[in-house]
């Protein structure tokens, strides 16, 4: 055991006024759906959490608990290499006598204990443990382990440093909202409560709601500034917030979606990273946890490469130490971050968002500005899976953005474009989602109109109405399963069956007599599992959590009509690509300037 000591430390009333808090040890509250295992790991039955505020971790005599977890582990690389912090200490709060150890996990190396001490905690006071081994560490996860020598409890703790921040951060937390009050208002209440509990943060940041639906009242805002705004989507809303922040002396912005929920500790840690990072232009990306599987990463930053949207660290299990270490590896560095949580210095902005309305605006903002991008365990938000929200409208927006981003970022060969379009198109056709197929055709047609299309349709009102009117509807609606007979069995795909599926375009070339007149169950996702719906005439797409769904029916006539349109459109797009790409690249600088957006909001900025 390295640097091991056995001295007993007693409580001190010193509040370390000369120190700066890098991150806190936190516990989940009553409202949190995130498992306790992402906060602490009990090693016997003598550990119990009270989630009622304040959250208290009770540890009976002999109880052992560790904090090598997603929210409470310490990522050494971020604070040591990225921020060049040379000294840290650990403060603890609670009551009782504990054996305290500091452990180290590293990929590919055996576990090590670095420190052991016995501490006595007294209610209302803090104990400070210096970590003298810190300058010698380079990577891995540092964490706290405790064993109770008598019945006691822990209220939390914090990692501190006496090293001063490199810069003062004045943070504008920008939330763009459109008709999602059930998500927005709880988020505002949570932020307001955090600022009330720790009022020093009221001097460091301001919460600003860009209200594209113009329906949030001052009372509902819980102290946040509400700016009514015309609906130009996320691109327009976040840009309006960026302009406000720049005009009112803020140094940094944090973009957050109105339906993304995060603990205030994520905001605090992002703030401290921005204060200390040696890379002045760095931006902090919040990871996204999956709402339906809250211990699983959707992504920790992402990559847009040749038309492919690649989620980094996708589906890693944040309960597993090995996966936690993998999540912090800097392999396959992200080239963009989602705006559900994206914090950046305003001084680093060379190009404003592209007027995509939504989808693609966050990717182009990162790609064009080339921010050095930071992720860190514990900085995250939680949101509904994208697959659940997939619809004709989101598919339209997604394909449109993908095609334009490819043109703006140097893809000149037609093959990747056509492969992307036909993959998306085949997926919805094989899933009987014909409205989505029509929306994808519309997206390609609109892209082929050139960059002027985006200027003419910045509010997307006409397009949204047109896509919304597509039939058959794929809108998720309340659906009762009790009186419905659905087939749930999965069909294994043998070699012969798979060949038949491929040869018949997943059954579309089969005669109607070979099609089963049954309803096939599918969990709502981007597309159906093609092998499971093969030879079924109807598919029920269902979301269990919301008990909503819709039925899609096989229509061979529509399939072949749309398939022919898609092939003809692909050929026309391939021929147009060189000229079309030149037009988009030429127009890009003028459509992403501050002056462009100030002209768009000329009236609003004067009011």
UniProtKB/TrEMBL annotation:
Q: Which UniProt keywords apply?
A: Transferase
User: Which is a Pfam family this sequence falls into?
Assistant: Glycos_transf_2
Q: Does the keyword Transferase apply?
A: yes
Where on the tree of life does the source sit, at the highest rank?
Bacteria
Give the molecular function GO annotations. Answer: transferase activity
Record's keyword annotation contains Transmembrane helix:
no
Ranges for domain Glycosyltransferase 2-like: 173-276
Protein name, entry field:
Glycosyl transferase
The species is Acetobacter tropicalis
């Amino acid at each position: 055991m390295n640097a091991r000591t056995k001295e007993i430390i007693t409580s001190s009333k010193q509040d370390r006024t000369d120190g700066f808090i890098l991150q806190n040890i936190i516990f989940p509250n009553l409202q949190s759906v995130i498992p306790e295992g992402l906060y602490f790991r009990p090693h016997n039955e003598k550990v119990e959490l009270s989630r009622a505020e304040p959250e208290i971790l009770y540890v009976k005599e002999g109880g052992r608990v560790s904090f090598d977890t997603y929210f409470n582990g310490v990522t050494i690389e971020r604070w040591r290499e990225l921020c060049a912090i040379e000294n840290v200490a650990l403060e603890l709060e609670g009551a009782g006598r504990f054996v305290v150890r500091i452990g180290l996990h590293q990929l590919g190396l055996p576990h090590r204990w670095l420190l052991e001490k016995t501490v006595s905690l007294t209610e209302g006071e803090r104990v400070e443990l210096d970590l003298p081994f810190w300058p010698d560490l380079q990577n891995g996860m540092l964490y706290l382990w405790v064993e109770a020598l008598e019945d006691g409890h822990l209220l939390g703790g914090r990692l501190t440093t006496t090293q001063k921040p490199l810069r003062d951060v004045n943070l504008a937390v920008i939330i763009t909202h459109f008709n999602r009050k059930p998500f927005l208002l709880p988020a505002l209440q949570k932020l307001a409560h955090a600022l009330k509990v720790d009022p020093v943060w009221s001097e460091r940041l301001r919460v600003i709601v860009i209200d594209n639906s113009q329906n949030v009242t001052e009372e509902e805002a819980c102290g946040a500034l509400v700016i009514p705004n015309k609906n130009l989507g996320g691109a327009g809303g976040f840009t309006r917030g960026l302009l406000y922040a720049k005009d009112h002396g803020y140094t940094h912005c944090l973009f957050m979606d109105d339906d993304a929920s995060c603990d205030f500790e994520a905001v605090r840690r992002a703030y401290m990273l921005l204060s200390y990072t040696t890379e002045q232009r760095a931006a902090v990306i919040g990871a996204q946890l999956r709402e339906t599987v809250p211990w699983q990463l959707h992504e920790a930053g992402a990559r847009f490469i040749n038309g492919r949207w690649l989620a980094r660290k996708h589906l890693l299990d944040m309960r597993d130490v090995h996966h936690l270490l993998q999540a912090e590896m800097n392999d396959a560095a992200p080239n963009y971050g989602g705006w559900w949580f994206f914090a950046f210095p305003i001084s680093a902005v060379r190009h404003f968002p592209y007027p995509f309305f939504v989808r693609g605006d966050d990717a182009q903002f990162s790609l064009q500005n080339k921010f050095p991008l930071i992720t860190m365990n514990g900085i995250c938000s939680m949101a509904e899976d994208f697959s659940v929200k997939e619809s004709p409208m989101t598919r339209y927006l997604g394909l449109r953005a993908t095609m334009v981003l490819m043109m703006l970022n140097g893809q000149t060969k037609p093959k990747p474009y056509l492969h992307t379009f036909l993959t998306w198109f085949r997926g919805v056709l094989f899933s009987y989602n014909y409205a989505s197929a029509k929306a994808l055709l519309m997206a390609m047609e609109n892209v082929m109109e050139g960059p002027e299309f985006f200027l003419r349709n910045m509010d997307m009102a006409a397009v949204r109405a047109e896509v919304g009117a597509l039939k058959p509807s794929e809108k998720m609606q309340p659906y009762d399963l009790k009186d419905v007979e659905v087939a749930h069995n999965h069909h294994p795909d043998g070699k012969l069956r798979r060949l038949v599926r491929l040869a018949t375009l997943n059954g579309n070339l089969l005669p109607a007599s070979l099609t089963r007149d049954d309803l096939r169950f599918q969990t709502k996702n981007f597309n159906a599992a093609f092998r499971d719906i093969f030879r079924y005439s109807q598919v029920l797409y269902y979301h269990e959590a919301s008990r909503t769904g819709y039925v899609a029916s096989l229509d061979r006539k529509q399939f072949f009509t749309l398939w022919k349109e898609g092939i003809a459109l692909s050929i026309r797009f391939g021929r147009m690509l060189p000229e079309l790409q030149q037009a988009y690249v030429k127009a890009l600088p003028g459509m992403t300037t501050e002056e462009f957006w100030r002209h768009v909001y000329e009236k609003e900025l004067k009011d």
